[in-house]
Amino acid sequence: MTAPAIRSPAREFWRRFRRRHTALLAAALIVLIVLAAVFAPYIAPYDPAAADYDALLQPPSAAHLAGTDSYGRDILSRIIWGGRVSLAVGLISALAGGLIGTIMGLVSGWSGGWVDALLMRLCDVLFAFPGLLLAIAVVALLGPGVGNVIWAVAVFSVPVFARLVRGSTLVLKQAQYVQAARSIGVSRFKLILHHILPGALPAVIVYMSLRIGSAILVGAALSFIGLGAQPPSSEWGAMLADGRSYLGVADHLTLFPGLAIFVVVLCFNILGDGLRDALNQKLQ
Amino acid sequence: MADPELLDVQDLSVSFPAGRGRTTVVRDLRLAVRPGETVALVGESGSGKSVASLAITRLLDYGPGRIDSGRILYRDNGGKVRDLAQEDAEAMRGLRGPEIAMVFQQPMSSLNPVMRIGDQIAEAIVQHRRLDRTAALAEARRLLERVRIPDAPRQLRAYPFEISGGMRQRAMIAIALASRPRLLIADEPTTALDVTVQAQVLRLLRELQRDLGTGLLFITHDMGVVAELADRVVVMRAGERLEEGTVGALFAAPSHPYTRSLLAAVPVLGSLNDEALPVPFPEPPAPTGPQDTVTAAPPVLEVRDLVTRFDIRGMLGGIRARVHAVEQVSLDIYPGETVALVGESGCGKSTLGRSIVRLEEPSSGRILFRGQDVLTVAPNTAADSASRRGIQYVFQDPFSALDPRLTVGFSVAEPIRTHGLLKGAAVMRRVEELLDLVGLPREFVSRYPHELSGGQCQRVGIARALASEPQLIIADEAVAALDVSIRAQIVNLLMGLQRKLGLACLFISHDMAVVERISHRVAVMYLGQLVEIGPRQAVLASPQHAYTRRLLSAVPVPDPSRRRDEVAIDDTEVPSPLRAPDDVPDVAPLIQVGPGHYVARHRVGGLY
Amino acid sequence: MLAFFLKRLIGAVPVLFAVSLFVFGFVRLLPGDPARLVAGADATEQEVASAREALGLDRPISEQYLRYAGATLRGDFGISSRTHEPVIEVIGARFLPTLWLTLAAMGWATLTGGLLGVWAGVKRGRWQDQAAMLAAIGGLSFPGFWLGLLLIDLFSVHLGWLPTGGFDGWRSLLMPSFTLGVGVAAVLARFTRSAFVDVAGEDYVRTARSKGLTERRVIWRHAARNALIPVVTLTGLEFGTLLGGAIVVETVFAWPGLGRLLVDSIAFRDYPVIQALILLLSAEFVLINLVVDLLYGVLNPAIRLRS
Amino acid sequence: AGQITVGVGDNILGLDPTDLNDSVSLSATRLFFQGLYGFDRDLKLVPVLAESTEVNSDSTQYTVHLRRGVKFHDGTSFDAAAVKLNYDRLRDPANRLKRQSLLEAVDKVEVVDEFTIRLVLKAPSGVLLNYLAHTGASILSPKAIAQYGSEISRHPVGTGPFVFTSWTPDTLKAARNPQYWRQGLPRLDGVTIRSIPESGARLALLRSGEAQFVFPLPPETVQLIERDERLAIDKTPSIVVQYVALNTRKKPFDDPRVRQALNYAIDKTAFIKVVYNGFGIPMDAPVAPGIAFYSKQGVWPYDPAKAKQLLAEAGYPNGFETEIWNFSNTLNNRASQFLQQQLAVIGVKVAVNPLEAGVATTRLWGAKTPEEAEVRMFFGSWAPSTGDADWALRPLLSSRSYPPALYNLSYFKNDEVDAAIQKGLSTADPVQRKVAYDEVQKVVWQQAPWIFLSVNTLVAGRDKRLTGLTQQPDTALTYEEADLK
Ligand SMILES: Nc1ncnc2c1ncn2[C@@H]1O[C@H](COP(=O)(O)OP(=O)(O)OP(=O)(O)O)[C@@H](O)[C@H]1O
Ligand SMILES: Nc1ncnc2c1ncn2[C@@H]1O[C@H](COP(=O)(O)OP(=O)(O)OP(=O)(O)O)[C@@H](O)[C@H]1O
Ligand SMILES: [Mg+2]
Ligand SMILES: [Mg+2]
């Protein structure tokens, strides 16, 4: 009988993840949505910017599956195109913010002392600086492109991740097994990578999957206060915000982009749960 | 049988998911406990003892394990016989505590890290005895005193990480006793206890049996304890019951070959009275005679005036008191030498060991490893790495020392990879070799710590310590959770390595018989200080310090015919290493009383 | 303890100083001419010039900073260029509504979020878990303004139970605090669940069960308390963020809070108000994080703070 | 009788009319304050605190006879001294009041007797009374000015129909002035003005009965109000023109044919329908019909073919690329997008760039010279607050009004126009002024420095029980005669 090989934690993780079928399904759906966005020009039934003044605010019909908006543009096509912006905002900002924040939190929690103090005060400053203010500044300086907003949103998720990870790090640092590894002489980097990070990761993943949704909604908030995406690039949040004054008149204007956001957020959260559970060796 | 059974386990089988199927780890187990009876469950490490006990309490439900078949008949307080395997969760909850209580094997992880010890005990009292919190805390204090925890009022307010391994175990016992159970399942409750405390705890259990008629299912590896305590013995191996019998009959005439070999491997204190050097167990592979491995080379480790103290902080960070865990300890260990460190639970043995591997920060003193002061070397230098590789520590609580998120294979390979000893597939081969050495199946490389039994965990810890080919091993109760045959195998393994590589060893243990077997010299600690140190033969045969004498007198003998009904135990107040922040204890110098034999002559905590 | 507290508070001074300097530069970096905004859409050139003079923006930037720093140190935050009121009063008038809204929202959201999270964690993998998750995701993907408008439509327009907005008694607090709290509750629920699932498999939870404790006690005293540690961080952070004002909710419910003040002030390049607001927010965050750090120690004695 | 609540879209920033420039605050001050003159709902000049005015022949001296028996809310009497004090206060640059330019033309204010005052001008002016009628030239109680100093904007004391009660950031409350000089007025016991920035919530305020009047109303929600029989829509033709300024100094807009082509390319009716839900009329002159001396020119027809042809003639057969700016808000962005789509039809690719309010100030007014200006197309609107052709045309089209001085964003320069504007400004004779402004409007229309779009209709929602609350074309509300049944 040949003994199984020593799999790296990453391989182990993948092995467990593969068994989570709902998570895989969610991941597949996300890929599908991303593909739809990428290939929007080939998939979208209409030009998302083409207005038809004879078909304003049409309810869903065979011609326009999701109806038309106040310019007579096809909402479905706009949602497909809008995925490009919205998914980019959600994914990039959450991933970038999560990555930087996690590193910061690990360093801060692990080092303690003045490094910790410095990094955490930096976070305080970042926090105190309302994200919206920066978003406005970015919009003001660089123009209202959503691409610019991504970075603003990313920067402002950094402190949350940093503090979360720092919290876990502080706890894990005390764990007997971390001390044990330390006494062996495991390098700081490996120690953090193999023993601390996996313990902090569940929180990061869950928060990240939540963050993707809220990042998409930042677009809505910005549009709401009048700083949205640059027209006519459709973006789910902006579509929602613009459609709100038609509530009660033409509800499909908000319904469909809302649905799109819901589905995407749901998928990311299911995926997040799957990843998280796969990190927990006690769950089969 | 005249007595109605309290517990009657019939054909119990338990399995765990494994890969795509399930593996059965307890198979058709039969077991009975009568009121007031003590049944010892002994057997090979990993044979399913702990799992069986979890199945009985149905705590198994909260994990991946499943009861596949069998009945667990239990006669409750009202005289009704119930099949625990069929009861619903709520009914089981009602039974746990006042009816069936359990002491878990891994005391560290089994205590809630963020709750005070007192609250964890009082909670059970409040739940089952309808006392208010203050009364419950008072009761908790009484319980702590009864399990001989020093300074009980303060320990009530301590958190698990603040107390020693033995204290945790006693706290677990106190929790189990708090609800005055009718059936107590104790999984290795005394492994981390020094013999004096062990004797007291055993007496406490007997009292409980007498007063309440509690049935006791006692899982242990210590045949001395079995002989001392048990009425009947059940022997398990590989998930199955091998044989059962009254303790006298079983010890006198074991029927199964495994039982026979088990009893043969039991070390008896005093069997090496005439031998100056350690001698391996008469186990395969064939022993090699006395362990004359100590050379005249300079010591690998020199500890000088080491002091480690812990500040006890209040909720908001202020220092309230200080634990003098290690006070001015000096100690040398030579290549090829094993020094046994013994002493009462909580006296600072682990702290000393942990200080040497720099898991604690000593307040003063020096630690020289091969002439290099390890406390002053800069981190991440070659010297630092050399000492971290050269000294390995086997943790007293093996489970919490393994990263729960990493497989056994990865944990064992970690020191090899860290120090770049091997590369690629060679790492894997070495890990397998190490698992073989400690008697674990190779497929355990892909297991996680929570899928191991206590003894298996401990062996992983040992394999991991050996992985970096150290010059010095600090083994903190490293064989306590192992059954006698495996224990003999591990001790022989260490001695073999000593012979081959000149490995030095600081062997922290409560088991005097093993100490006698393995050590060249014995050091005795008391309240953080070294009170006696000398050649093993001299210390064990003619102990000079009163504490050493007391320690030796309490060692149980693995022979039921020589059972002491009342051990001479002094019930004086247990001294405590806790002091006010500015109250430094005085340390008496060691005085030579024989060749290499030193003893402290001064009054410490009621002794002189 | 006190020493630790003081140390952290003193440590906050340079932070606040850095923030003040940063903000001072930042607002001036933003494109936009406050004088022009103050003077109005159809102002003549003289009117603009006189507005600039009145704002002190005609002086060299260094002088402006020194004045600002000096005044700030004296506790004088200047006069709002938008309303001509002292900044202290502008902010003061809106601080209380924000505080109320935040407290109410955080109050119900932490409670509900925590409960929901633990519940989902207990029922992990079962339909209750899934339902809680769907509810949470729903709460997350609902933009505040949408939910707010729907609530207004239902409770104010159709049922007539609650006022549509404004800051006027507890009834006016219900819808805004609900709307504001939904996102927080959702985040906390998801997060608590996750932390809870991790903790629920620990040995000490098994010990708690072996004592025969009620399941509720096992969950709350043993599992939840350990799960709380990461949740506390998040709660603190969310609280701080909300204290900065919830722009969207404040706008929908015409709530006179700090968030809207900030947006309006930015749109108006009301430098003194922006500067003071951000200083206030930094101070809040320093304070909240201090509390969070203390709470860590309370919740997990092993990481008690060494001052 | 009764109390009413009015929902408005912005915060009230202050209550000193001389130091305000946003229409919401100015409108609110009209509860408390009045000037010597005012406008009726057709923007006709009417005396308020004045009884009559004599102008000398060269339009340099205005002698105003004041109304007698008027009292300020604090009990002091309104008289010539009060007017002089107010006007001098407003004119004095040291006071840095935002409305100081209203009295720019005045050289001296003289008290003739207790109820007569004379305004001596620096140069002849035909429009002084329009300026005096502006809310910014309201008369405050001299006692209150002395008493409150810089706090005056929180303590409004005037002669108006309502007395100040309280003001918190979002809510202004006023109560009936029992000593109001007009007999039997006001009819209401009190007025509350609430700021509700979100239009949906503002609408809900009306529908739930918490407010009796809300303005503005997003055009798309009108349907919801119409469904409710308790509510009515109030439509008021405004004097606000919506147009796109084309930078006539920049290629390709320097060519009149291009500018005309753009005018041909936009379907104004569709524009009004899509952007404003039909609430508006196409512009048919450079000023709105409500403005004095409005001179109708006829709507630019929608004719994309003609537009293409003109572009080709001008050398742009395939169109060109350019950029349009606007102040970022829902309606403006929507309008820009509409324009973008329509211009795309004739091959003109327009990038829409909405400017945040602060950014706009630098981008638009930051250029010191026409050469520095970056603006190409700017979608905006103009509300001439004096209701006179001068302020409707001069700031936008005179070559002396280039930013940063004023608002000529098309950098339009035409000598005839310049001369005519100057002429109209310097005389009080209506006949001469009409000639001048006819000329200006004709030339501007031909030269097309703008894309002429629409004059919007103000849309407000009203509880049907509320009567007599009138909205003026400049969006200001008059509460005097309002009543709640
Ligand atoms: N969660 C699990 N998943 C898979 N296997 C498990 C799990 N828990 C225990 N086992 C296996 O079941 C067997 C019995 O374990 P158990 O803990 O009962 O041993 P034990 O008799 O108590 O041994 P020890 O004396 O070493 O504590 C062991 O081989 C162990 O590896
Ligand atoms: N982190 C800590 N904080 C406070 N006190 C501590 C801490 N760790 C250990 N102690 C105390 O130090 C003393 C020595 O503990 P140590 O673990 O060294 O004992 P030990 O000799 O190993 O006992 P045992 O045989 O029970 O394992 C004990 O009284 C213990 O309560
Ligand atoms: Mg076991
Ligand atoms: Mg120990």
Helix and strand topology:
The complex is a heterotetramer of chains A (284), B (608), C (307) and D (485).
Chain A: H1 9-17, H2 21-38, H3 40-43, H4 75-111, H5 113-128, H6 131-142, H7 146-173, H8 176-184, H9 188-224, H10 236-243, H11 252-279
Chain B: E1 7-18, E2 21-33, E3 38-43, H1 49-57, E4 66-75, E5 81-83, H2 89-95, E6 100-103, H3 107-110, H4 117-129, H5 133-146, H6 152-155, H7 165-178, E7 183-187, H8 195-212, E8 215-219, H9 223-229, E9 232-237, E10 240-246, H10 247-252, H11 257-264, E11 301-313, E12 319-333, E13 338-343, H12 349-356, E14 364-369, E15 372-373, H13 382-390, E16 391-394, H14 408-418, H15 425-437, H16 454-467, E17 472-476, H17 484-501, E18 504-508, H18 512-518, E19 521-526, E20 529-535, H19 536-541, H20 546-553, E21 578-579, E22 590-594, E23 597-600
Parallel strand pairs in B: 3-8, 3-9, 6-7, 7-8, 13-18, 13-19, 16-17, 17-18
Antiparallel strand pairs in B: 1-2, 1-4, 4-5, 9-10, 11-12, 11-14, 12-21, 14-15, 19-20, 20-23, 22-23
Chain D: E1 3-8, H1 23-29, E2 37-39, E3 45-47, E4 50-55, E5 61-66, H2 80-91, E6 106-113, E7 116-121, H3 128-133, H4 142-148, E8 162-168, E9 171-176, E10 190-195, H5 199-207, E11 213-215, H6 222-226, E12 231-246, H7 256-265, H8 268-276, E13 280-282, H9 304-313, E14 321-327, H10 330-345, E15 349-355, H11 357-365, E16 377-382, H12 389-397, H13 415-425, H14 430-447, E17 450-463, E18 466-467, E19 470-471, E20 477-478, E21 483-484
Parallel strand pairs in D: 1-10, 1-11, 14-15, 14-16
Antiparallel strand pairs in D: 2-3, 4-5, 5-7, 6-7, 8-9, 9-10, 11-17, 12-16, 12-17, 13-17, 18-21, 19-20
Helix pairs in contact in D: 7-9, 8-10, 12-13, 13-14
The structure holds adenosine-5'-triphosphate (ATP) (2 copies) and magnesium ion (MG) (2 copies).
Residues 49-50, 105, 187, 453-454 of chain B line the site of one magnesium ion.
Overall 3D form of chain D? globular
Oligomeric form of this entry?
heterotetramer
Average predicted confidence as pLDDT of chain D: 86
What's the shape of chain B? globular
Biggest sheet statistics of chain D: 11 strands, mixed
Span of the ends, CA to CA of chain B: 53 Å
CATH class descriptor name of the largest domain in chain B: Alpha Beta
Q: What's the total number of strands of chain D?
A: 21
Uncertain ranges of chain D:
none
Continuous helix count of chain D = 14
CATH topology of the largest domain in chain B: Rossmann fold
